[in-house]
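Whiteboard transcription, Tuesday session. T.W. wrote the structure tokens on the left side:
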């Protein structure tokens, strides 16, 4: 895909008082390690990083009025905070904490450097229009599994508001404050051992019933094996994740979409997605998973990207009935 920016070598820097050509803000905390990266085409931080945000109150994610995006992550070498901002053709990244270098090394992959948007060919007007309207869409790769697996498990069989609330409460209560000058209220998610030690009544307090809590506990007990999946091909990674009882195709797809930037990991078993895809591509409000997969077959290899574009198009069937209602733990 033709880009707005001429390809140039990526540049990195570790600075004490600011980035090259970027003055330090008066009174601001001392900068962390830093990197400047030049993407080879349009880049929209909101579109690329938005799927990593688990609701507006996600304590691991913050978008600030100056256009920056902050993420707090538990990396293989420790907690870290990453701030990224796009400025006219280049991306500025700063990071703090033990995981700072790990996050900066992988910043291009996080922002879709390994993605190949040109591999996608729209074959439907809805997709073509949205494709043209979102040139900055890239599928980013976090390289981290548990930070997507745990919230995806929390989203099983409940409303998004319930799941977001559980994630917010558990991370704030058992996580650690984000390193560096992160915006207030940001936290790094708990380490695997901490997740394993959360008492049953704290899961219940967060609205998480025993089944989902048990799935999280099984996953964190084999945390090393789970994180190893980040180095596998998406299909093999999904197979590794689904060995954990309670992790099925819906959950594994949601994970590798984020951890791997997997363009073909279409989500099946979703309450709303088949109807949205069916309506957008065929006017079929009642499409099931089988019909959705049939409609997405022309995009084999890029089915997740196609589904993402459909969601971004805003073209859906509307709601004919009430939304799924929030339920108490006893009903789950």
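and on the right, the sequence the group agreed on:
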């Amino acid at each position: 895909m033709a880009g707005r920016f001429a390809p140039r070598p990526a540049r990195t820097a570790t600075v004490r008082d600011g980035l090259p050509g970027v003055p330090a803000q008066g009174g601001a905390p001392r900068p962390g390690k830093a990197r400047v990266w030049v993407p080879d085409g349009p880049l929209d931080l909101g579109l690329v990083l938005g799927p990593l945000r688990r609701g507006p109150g996600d304590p691991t994610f913050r978008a600030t009025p100056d256009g920056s995006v902050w993420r707090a992550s538990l990396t293989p070498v420790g907690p870290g905070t990453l701030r990224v901002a796009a400025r006219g053709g280049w991306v500025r990244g700063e990071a703090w904490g033990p995981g700072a270098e790990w996050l900066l090394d992988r910043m291009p992959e996080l922002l879709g450097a390994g993605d190949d948007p040109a591999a996608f060919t729209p074959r439907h007007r809805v997709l073509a229009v949205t494709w043209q309207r979102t040139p900055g869409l890239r599928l980013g790769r976090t390289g981290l599994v548990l930070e997507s697996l745990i919230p995806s498990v929390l989203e099983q069989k409940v409303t998004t508001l319930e799941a977001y609330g559980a994630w917010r409460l558990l991370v704030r209560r058992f996580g650690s404050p984000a390193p560096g000058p992160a915006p207030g209220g940001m936290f790094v998610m708990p380490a695997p051992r901490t997740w394993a030690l959360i008492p049953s009544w704290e899961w219940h307090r967060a609205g998480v019933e025993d089944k989902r809590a048990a799935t999280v506990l099984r996953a964190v007990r084999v945390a090393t094996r789970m994180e190893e999946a980040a180095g596998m091909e998406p299909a093999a990674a999904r197979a590794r994740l689904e060995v954990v009882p309670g992790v099925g195709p819906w959950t594994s797809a949601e994970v590798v979409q984020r951890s791997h930037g997997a363009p073909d990991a279409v989500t099946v078993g979703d309450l709303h997605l088949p109807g949205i895809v069916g309506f957008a591509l065929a006017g079929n409000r009642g499409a099931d998973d089988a019909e959705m997969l049939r409609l997405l077959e022309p995009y084999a290899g890029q089915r997740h990207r196609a589904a993402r574009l459909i969601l971004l198009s805003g073209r859906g069937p509307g709601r004919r009935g009430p939304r799924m209602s929030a339920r108490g733990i006893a009903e789950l």
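Someone added at the bottom: Residues 160-174 form the longest helix (15 residues).
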